[in-house]
């Protein structure tokens, strides 16, 4: 069974997790790339917004308007009640069903959501709806834990077990370190990178680019050095 994001305790524990690594090697480069590509005067759909951690960062980064959607009313309430929400709004949805018209948003993001769905058909539903509600020329970013960095103990989490190879669609435990020294265990689904390309392409997205940020300085000689980026980011365009 996956993580129950409707559960209040799960939602509170996720809030306690210090996402500085996600910020530095995930959210920050995503928001920078978005602003470089489309500027700030845009409306962004945050699919699977959770408690609004990324939406608030988009607003703080100068993005004009953010619309967050999530399957969990608990998470939507949390996001809506935050005093720093600025020009953002939050809505509860069912998987893959959005009440927005075609061609509504300039961009969309989907952070740590693919790994929370264990059916490929649900991934496709999500991405098709995102594609439908984006204007042409829009960009869609998908950010997730890196399927090629399982079992590596990063400074704040470990994604899967050491020395284990995961199959596409297999359940994988993730261990998040909380500030009090305890571990918050969540259950994700392992998706190979090929699956992300497949789903994005099938939903109609083009020019899919892959980004993997790490602390290793790749401008120096890294030959023979095995390094593991903690996250993976796909940037896809709708024409
Ligand atoms: C790990 S949290 C990430 C929240 C946020 N994107 C972030 O980066 O902090 C995953 C969120 O995705 C939501 N979610 C999972 N599957 C979903 C689906 N099929 N449709 C909408 N929301 C979904 C969950 O309810 C949860 O709030």
From TrEMBL:
<dbReference type="GO" id="GO:0032259">
    <property type="term" value="P:methylation"/>
</dbReference>
<dbReference type="InterPro" id="IPR041698">
    <property type="entry name" value="Methyltransf_25"/>
</dbReference>
<protein>
    <submittedName>
        <fullName>Ubiquinone/menaquinone biosynthesis C-methylase UbiE</fullName>
    </submittedName>
</protein>
<keyword id="KW-0830">Ubiquinone</keyword>
<dbReference type="Pfam" id="PF13649">
    <property type="entry name" value="Methyltransf_25"/>
</dbReference>
<dbReference type="GO" id="GO:0008168">
    <property type="term" value="F:methyltransferase activity"/>
</dbReference>
<keyword id="KW-0808">Transferase</keyword>
<feature type="domain" description="Methyltransferase">
    <location>
        <begin position="44"/>
        <end position="137"/>
    </location>
</feature>
<keyword id="KW-0489">Methyltransferase</keyword>
<dbReference type="InterPro" id="IPR029063">
    <property type="entry name" value="SAM-dependent_MTases_sf"/>
</dbReference>
């Amino acid at each position: 069974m996956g993580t129950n994001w409707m559960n209040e305790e799960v939602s509170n524990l996720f809030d306690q997790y210090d996402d500085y690594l996600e910020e530095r090697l995930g959210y920050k480069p995503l928001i920078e790339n978005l602003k470089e590509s489309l500027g700030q005067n845009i409306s962004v759909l945050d699919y699977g917004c959770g408690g609004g951690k990324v939406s608030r960062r988009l607003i703080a980064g100068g993005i004009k308007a953010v619309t967050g959607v999530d399957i969990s009313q608990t998470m939507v309430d949390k996001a809506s009640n935050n005093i720093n929400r600025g020009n953002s709004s939050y809505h509860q949805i069912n998987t893959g069903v959005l009440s927005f018209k075609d061609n509504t948003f300039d961009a969309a993001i989907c952070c740590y959501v693919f790994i929370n769905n264990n059916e490929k058909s649900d991934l496709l539903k999500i991405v098709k709806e995102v594609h439908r509600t984006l204007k042409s020329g829009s960009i869609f970013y998908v950010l997730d834990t890196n399927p090629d960095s399982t079992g590596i103990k990063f400074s704040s989490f470990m994604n899967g077990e050491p020395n284990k190879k995961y199959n596409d669609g297999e359940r994988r435990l993730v261990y998040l370190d909380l500030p009090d020294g305890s571990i918050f265990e969540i259950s994700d689904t392992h998706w190979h990178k090929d699956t992300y390309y497949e789903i994005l392409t099938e939903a109609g997205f083009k020019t899919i680019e892959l980004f993997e940020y790490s602390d290793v300085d790749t401008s120096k000689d890294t030959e023979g050095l095995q390094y593991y980026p903690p996250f993976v980011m796909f940037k896809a365009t709708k024409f």
